[in-house]
Amino acid sequence: MDFRNQIVTWLAGQTGLEQDQIDAWIEIPPQPSLGDYAFPCFRLAKHLRRAPAKIAEELAGLARGSITQLADVQPVQGYLNFFVDRARFVQAAVQHVLAAGDSLGRQTLGAGQTVVVEYSSPNIAKPFHVGHAFTTILGQALHRLYDHLGYRTVRVNHLGDYGTQFGKLIVAYRLWGDAAAVAADPIRELLRIYVRFHEQAETHPELEDQAREAFRQLEAGSEPEKALWQTFRDLSLKEFATVYERLGVTFDSYLGESFYSDRIPAVVNLLRDRGILVESQGAQVVMLDEYGLPPCIVLKSDGTTIYASRDLAAVLYRWEQYRFARNIYVVGTPQALHFRQVFAVLDKAGVTAAKNCVHVGFGLVKFPDRKLSTRSGDVIFLADLLQECVDKTRDIIAENARLRQTDMPMAEIDEAAEKIGLGAIVYTFLKNGRERDIVFSWEEMLDFDGDSAPYVQYTYARARSILRKAEAEGQAVPDTCAAVLTSEDEFAIAKLLDGFDQAIVRAAELYEPYILLRQVTALARAFNKYYNHEPILKTEDALLRQSRLALLQAVCLAIRVGLDLVGIGVVERM
């Protein structure tokens, strides 16, 4: 749509300022009576050497008749308030959506640029628990947003498949492992012996020493330790795959921490060559005083690696492979210091890639009645949570169908329950700013009238039912809209459609998918208000009725594309 652009271009021509500057200054008034766009003329007072009120009066006089798609321009207390021609605005918004189709919001901003998104990254031999849902769902949404904007996106699952915890697991398996139990239910059995290790280590601290030695042997390439490690890794990936498949999540790379083990010497050599690696209490560290950060350990006193050393190697490898414009780490906010240290080490070493690395943190996942901990064994498996949500949703849909006496086959109920149940979980993780903690509530997640996936999905199904009924009555759903829609509700819907493209851009730039999700939810609310006010199919005027159906078609398309971009599916009926 070009309404805002017309205003920006015209103002730039009148003032001699850059269009980007003008566009940044334009505001959306808090009240409709103050216009659809407003320009604060006090911004021009110094540049034009006149009072803001006088500037607004002069510009208003010039604008009337010059900007063809405006209904009026009013100067009010130093502001220049623009009122768009509503009928033409609604028409343009609907036409834009219908013409774009499934490519709605797709742009070429990222053409020729690569974005690496690291997310999910569960620990091998540990449960894929509900806490992993945040990084998995958020990372997948960011990947889809950047892909939609034209970037080449590389999805990396940086598996936690190395470190001292594997020494603990190897010792635990040799002491208490049951091969048959591991084969039958690998993650639960490995969790059992891992928990037992920590329980026993409280009274037998020598177990910790044994674990460190086992990991040292693993890093040294000892075959017995490597064989156990490989078994744990293979079984874990098989378990993880079922969750990923259900969520529709795929990756381009499963290179985990272990992959970078033999690349650590190159990292150490680089840091030594740059003169920044020093010894501290037997460990090899990089001092980061000038960054206001504590030293970053690269090698421990026993010569083994840690997270930081492997992450340094990973950045260098990815830069070598992809020359990324952004290397995004979707990892919990508690790891913020770790990433600041890693990026600072790279910066101090003069590595160009450091400035393109971004940590996208997120909050905690909480349940009102428990505290989750892998070491104590108190975890909620994500697969179990997904299934429970789908089961609860199936019961709700089946009951609603019974009450409405709707003939809905069980296969259709199952399909709808899967999309709505999984969508409810995805929506819960993405509906607010990512740094906010999530406290699970089944009532809120499955509220068909609140800010939830079921509410938006039900809105889509309702709108689609109207379009199907129109077609059944012989009314072809049009792909054009006439300049006849002028009501407050229609204008409200059009403004939300108009802001769809920008919502995608802002969601990607700020790493906040909730921006797009809120746009879609607001559109659903605006449509439901409209539905309750206007008799769409019973509209007597044929041109008006056809344009209203076109508006509905645009609403459905925007909701479907918007939900798909964050990983939520739609259903045709509920």
CA-based gyration radius: 29 Å
Gap between N and C termini: 34 Å
Provide the structure class.
alpha/beta
Unreliable segments (pLDDT under 50, ≥5 consecutive)? 372-377
Per CATH, the class of the domain at 392-565 reads Mainly Alpha
CATH superfamily of the domain at 392-565: Isoleucyl-tRNA Synthetase, Domain 1
Largest sheet: 4 strands, parallel
Number of helices: 22
Shape label: flat
Looking at the structure, the CATH topology of the domain at 392-565 is Isoleucyl-tRNA Synthetase, Domain 1
Helix content range:
40-55%
How much strand content do the residues show? 5-15%
Strand order of the largest sheet: 5-4-9-10
- Average per-residue pLDDT, rounded, comes to 92
CATH architectural category of the domain at 392-565:
Orthogonal Bundle
Q: How many beta-strand elements?
A: 12
What oligomeric state is this? single chain
Would you write up a description of this structure?
By secondary structure, the chain is of the alpha/beta class. Among the domains are: 3-84, 2-Layer Sandwich (Gyrase A, domain 2), CATH 3.30.1360.70; 392-565, Orthogonal Bundle (Isoleucyl-tRNA Synthetase, Domain 1), CATH 1.10.730. Helix content is 55%, strand content 9%. The chain contains 22 helices and twelve strands. The chain has helices at residues 3-15, 19-25, 45-48, 52-63, 86-100, 131-148, 164-176, 179-184, 186-201, 206-219, 223-247, 264-273, 307-322, 336-348, 382-404, 410-430, 442-445, 453-472, 488-498, 500-509, 514-533, 542-565; strands at 37-40, 70-76, 79-84, 114-118, 152-156, 277-280, 283-286, 296-299, 326-330, 357-360, 365-366, 438-439. Strands 5-4-9-10 form a four-stranded parallel beta sheet, sandwiched between helices. The protein has a three-stranded antiparallel beta sheet with strand order 1-3-2. Helix 10 packs across helix 11 (223-247). Mean pLDDT is 92; it is low at 372-377.
